[in-house]
Design goal:
This protein is of the alpha+beta class. It has one domain. It is built from 1 helix and 6 strands; from the N terminus they run E-E-E-E-E-E-H. The strands form 2 sheets. It has a 4-stranded antiparallel β-sheet with strand order 3-4-5-6, covered by helices on one side. The chain is globular, with a radius of gyration of 13 Å. The structure holds zinc ion (2 copies). The site of one zinc ion (ZN) has 8 residues, from loops.
Length: 104
């Protein structure tokens, strides 16, 4: 198993906010609310049977990129995904603020 990233283009309806998302093959998160669904073991493979909703819980800055940390509400597994240019940046800021509030 050397190929961890598989391109799998598909459109989907966000199960959190109902937004219809145009898949680009790599991200399966909703650019509007930044939630996604626990369907990948490795990004794009769709091999995970969990199917829980992935809540965006924190954002980390890594060089010039922002990494979104999502946690599955069903199995508590954490994932880091890159925030893409299509993502709603206001929502990214909200998540940062929310995680700061939690730690106060
Ligand atoms: Zn959404
Ligand atoms: Zn899960």
């Amino acid at each position: 198993m050397s190929l961890k990233f598989k391109k799998n283009v598909e459109d989907f309806i966000c199960e959190h906010c109902g937004n219809s998302v145009k898949g680009n093959g790599f991200t399966n998160h909703c650019p509007k609310c930044l939630w996604s669904k626990h369907v990948d073991v490795f990004p794009g493979d769709r091999l995970e049977a969990c199917g829980g909703m992935m809540e965006p819980i924190n954002v980390e800055k890594k060089g010039n990129d922002y990494m979104l940390i999502q946690q599955c509400v069903a199995c508590a597994k954490e994932f880091r995904i890159k925030v893409s240019q299509e993502d709603d940046f206001d929502e990214v800021i909200k998540i940062v603020k929310k995680s700061v509030d939690k730690h106060l």
